[in-house]
């Protein structure tokens, strides 16, 4: 059974950085796609980033336009953990962030294609 456990959320000021972690059990981070989504109060859960291994220590990542250039997703297969480095945070980044796993196929922005989810971690950015 695949389980995902996020950590690293918190309350920060605009312009600060945070790194979220997602510890994966029941599968390796390299099998399939690992994604991050977020959900702000009163809004739909939206795609943030996704990563897929493409070769020896090579990964391909895709990002939502709103976070491109500020966020970076990475994977550590020795620790079976994926990370979301978030820099230059803005108040509009405030949300619960969820780690998600997609068993097969290509990167996707569609949350329905991800079949395993973590419990979420809160990120709050104040101005």
Structure description:
By secondary structure, this protein is mainly β. The protein has no helices and eleven strands. It has strands spanning 3-7, 10-13, 18-25, 33-39, 46-55, 58-63, 71-76, 81-86, 95-102, 116-117, 121-126. Strands 2, 4, 5, 6, 9, 10 and 11 form a seven-stranded mixed β-sheet that branches. The chain has a four-stranded antiparallel β-sheet with strand order 1-3-8-7, with no helix packed on it. The radius of gyration is 14 Å and the shape is globular.
Estimated share of beta-strand residues: over 45%
- Residues in helix, %: under 10%
> Average pLDDT, to the nearest integer?
95
Query: Low-confidence parts, pLDDT < 50 over ≥5 residues?
Result: none
Radius of gyration: 14 Å
Distance between the termini: 40 Å
**How many strand elements?**
11
Helical segment count: 0
Globally, the shape reads globular
The major sheet is characterized as:
7 strands, mixed
Element pattern in H and E: EEEEEEEEEEE
Structural class: mainly beta
């Amino acid at each position: 059974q695949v389980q995902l456990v996020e950590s690293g959320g918190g309350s920060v000021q605009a312009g600060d950085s945070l790194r979220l972690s997602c510890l994966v059990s029941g599968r390796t981070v390299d099998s399939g796609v690992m994604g991050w989504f977020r959900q702000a109060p009163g809004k739909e859960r939206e795609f943030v980033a996704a990563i897929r291994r493409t070769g020896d220590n090579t990964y391909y990542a895709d990002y939502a336009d709103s976070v491109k250039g500020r966020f970076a997703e990475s994977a550590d297969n020795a620790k079976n953990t994926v990370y979301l480095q978030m820099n230059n945070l803005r108040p509009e980044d405030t949300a619960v962030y969820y780690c998600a796993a997609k068993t097969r196929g290509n990167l996707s922005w569609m949350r329905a294609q991800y079949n395993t989810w973590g419990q979420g971690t809160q990120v709050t950015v104040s101005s």
